């Protein structure tokens, strides 16, 4: 992705070094094994409800063994990622401003918060262990840049456009908030049984993948910034974090009724549909739920 020397967003709030590191034991209510922790990380990283996982991981850092004794010192790689994220966010601002203008609406820009260790959000405590997430209460996206390293080493889904896909997916949840979809679905989920709530969650996440694809389509046309192989990086990232693949890696089998984000194939296909069409009207991932 051609991003150096391009406009960065003014809506980045850098809190790195203002939090701390977690020095105590997390009381993970998902079972505590490394596999379930991986699933928990991805659950938040690509749009899950942070309140649910924050409660499972222990909530308030003041009561969970956090320490600010080790100062945060950004390395050159993280500083470059911070600049990159700012450019990606700026691209999403331009693309979604255009999409909303086509509908006679005004796009309200989200803020992206960079943090290290932990920070506070209107949805609770943001921890590096929970990965990137969007908080609809304050319309902010929270990112600890160390997650990009984890994508490369743990999920084998590295590359600048793979990281851009993560940001674009979270912005997709903000778009859902502005369209009114996010609040409507969360209300329905609260009124549903576990199986139905999971199905709604899958549809919500796949739509955010679709919106990330729409962004990729339009940013390519608007800025001619994509390199050969960029879309493949995003598709690989989408596939790497499908519920089926994560569960298979974690426990050796899958439980489809427990899926919250969709299969690898679904995530791949909905991102690609958004990229291929660039048309937000074709992103009804909820249709199959009511047929």
Sequence of strands across the biggest β-sheet: 1-4-8-7
Number of strands: 8
Task: Report the span from N to C terminus.
Answer: 39 Å
Helix and strand element order: EEHHEHEEEEEHHHHHHH
Radius of gyration equals 18 Å
Features:
10 helices, two-stranded antiparallel ribbon, globular, 291 residues, alpha/beta, 4-stranded mixed sheet, 51% helix
Write the SSE topology:
Blueprint: E1 12-14, E2 21-22, H1 34-45, H2 50-57, E3 66-67, H3 76-102, E4 111-114, E5 118-121, E6 124-127, E7 133-135, E8 140-143, H4 146-153, H5 160-179, H6 181-190, H7 194-223, H8 230-240, H9 243-251, H10 264-277
Helix pairs in contact: 1-9, 3-5, 3-7, 5-7, 5-8, 6-7, 7-10, 8-10
Question: How does this model look, in words?
Answer:
The chain is of the alpha/beta class and 291 residues long. 51% of the residues lie in helices and 9% in strands. It is built from 10 helices and 8 strands. It has helices at residues 34-45, 50-57, 76-102, 146-153, 160-179, 181-190, 194-223, 230-240, 243-251, 264-277, and strands at 12-14, 21-22, 66-67, 111-114, 118-121, 124-127, 133-135, 140-143. The strands form 3 sheets. It has a 4-stranded mixed β-sheet, covered by helices on one side. A two-stranded antiparallel ribbon has the order 2-3. A hairpin with a 4-residue loop joins strand 7 and strand 8. It is globular. Residues 20-69 have low confidence and may be disordered.
């Amino acid at each position: 992705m051609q991003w150096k020397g391009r406009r960065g967003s003014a809506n980045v709030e850098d809190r790195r070094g203002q939090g701390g590191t977690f020095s105590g034991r997390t009381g993970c209510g998902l079972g505590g094994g490394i596999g379930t922790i991986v699933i928990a990380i991805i659950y938040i990283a690509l749009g899950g409800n942070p309140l649910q996982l924050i409660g499972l991981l222990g909530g308030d850092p003041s009561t969970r063994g956090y320490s600010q004794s080790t100062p945060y010192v950004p390395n050159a790689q993280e500083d470059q990622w911070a600049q990159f994220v700012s450019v990606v966010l700026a691209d999403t601002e331009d693309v979604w401003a255009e999409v909303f203008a086509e509908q006679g609406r005004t796009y309200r820009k989200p803020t992206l918060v960079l943090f290290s260790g932990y920070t506070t959000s209107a949805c609770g405590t943001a921890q590096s262990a929970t990965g990137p997430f969007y908080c609809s209460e304050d319309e902010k996206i929270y990112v600890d840049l160390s997650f990009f390293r984890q994508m490369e080493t743990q999920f084998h889904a590295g590359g600048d456009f793979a990281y851009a896909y993560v940001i674009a997916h979270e912005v997709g949840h903000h778009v859902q908030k502005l369209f009114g979809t996010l609040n409507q679905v969360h209300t329905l989920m609260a009124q549903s049984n576990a199986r139905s709530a999971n199905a709604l969650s899958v549809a919500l996440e796949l739509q955010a993948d679709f919106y990330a694809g729409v962004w990729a389509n339009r940013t390519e046309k608007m800025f001619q910034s994509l390199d050969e192989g960029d879309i493949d990086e995003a598709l690989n990232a989408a596939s790497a974090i499908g519920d089926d693949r994560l569960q298979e890696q974690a426990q050796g089998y899958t439980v489809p009724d427990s899926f919250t984000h969709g299969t690898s194939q679904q995530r791949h296909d909905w991102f690609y549909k958004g990229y291929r069409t660039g048309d937000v009207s074709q992103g009804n991932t909820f249709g199959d739920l009511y047929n």
